[in-house]
Amino acid sequence: MKYLATAANFFFPGLGYLMLRHKIVQSLGWLAGVIGLTVVELQLQEPMPTLYWTMFASVLVMNTMFAVDAWKVASEQEAARVREPALA
Fold this sequence. Notes:
Elements: H1 2-11, H2 15-19, H3 24-44, H4 49-83
């Protein structure tokens, strides 16, 4: 699940958090925001190529950080499950 949530958060920030059941309301907001940014980014490609590359780089950095954070959240969740005593 860690790898899948990390990849999902890279391509669609917020989706990985939803998969991990982490910050559900914020995750939906981030997902809606990234869809909006993607629409704007694609509209800028031909008429304003300089702005397109600036936005592309910004979204790439943002998505990378969302993916890193999803990895950390998934790792913390895995560690918490290991620490929980098994029910017999």
